[in-house]
Fold this protein.
Amino acid sequence: MALLTRENGHARLDLPPLEKVPTHVAIIMDGNGRWARQRGLPRSEGHRQGTENLRHIIRAAVEFGVSIMTIYAFSTENWSRPRREVRLLMRILEMMIDRELQELYDEGVQIRHIGELNGIESRLARKVRDACDYTRGNQRLILNVAFNYGGRDEIVHAVQRIVRDGIPAHAITEATISDYVYTSDLPDPDLIIRTSGECRLSNFLIWQGAYSEIYTTETYWPAFDREEFHKALAAYGKRRRRFGRTDEQIDAEYRLPGQA
Ligand code: IPE
Ligand code: IPE
Ligand code: MG
């Protein structure tokens, strides 16, 4: 049963333990604009609240024992937004690094970037690289920030590098492609969460997400709180991942020795 406790003066719901925690959770943080419009606020306020929310969800990920979290912060398609909004989204990332880096470091978060830094303003690109370098030794949570990221763009870059490395066609396997995408040393996401009711990948982790469980919620990103996150992880715990096999095969695998 969920109980209310107090931490630093804030009411906090004690949530039941999760039966199965996904190792790698990826989140499409969507709905900032609609959250703001619903309240008669400018889109910028939605992005501000969305960023604030991200801080809480990172902490919740650490609390729930998630090891890797990949967040979609800016897609290669988001360049088509009004210039003002693009500039704001860039500034938000910069502010987030300036304000949160030390705290994230102290919490044991390792920041990584996936996507293209080419084409990003040099000062911001440097901050992103520095944040990754600074937190490199941390182990508690790998926070992969997908910024100027597109799944097709990632595959194009992977293929270009495979060709450049002179790997012959007959030697290219699925493992080769996995070795050349940005997440080469990480397991594929177990769970992809998308907020705001949309049911599409929008070019996010299209290679790595081939067998991810997908969870969608109508809740807009700024309102997707710790309890909602817990609900998503609990729903994951009830999923049966078959990877192409039958239920009978999976049952047999889990049957204890001596059981019929
Ligand atoms: C997600 O919220 C943030 C980014 C894509 C950067 P949106 O800005 O897409 O919000 P909606 O979808 O317009 O509500
Ligand atoms: C996906 O959201 C990108 C990010 C969350 C950064 P969008 O709001 O850009 O996706 P579409 O345009 O609705 O597919
Ligand atoms: Mg959107």
User: Anything to note?
Assistant: The first helix runs from residue 32 to 38. Residues 21-238 form a domain with the Undecaprenyl pyrophosphate synthetase fold (CATH 3.40.1180.10). The chain has a mean pLDDT of 95.
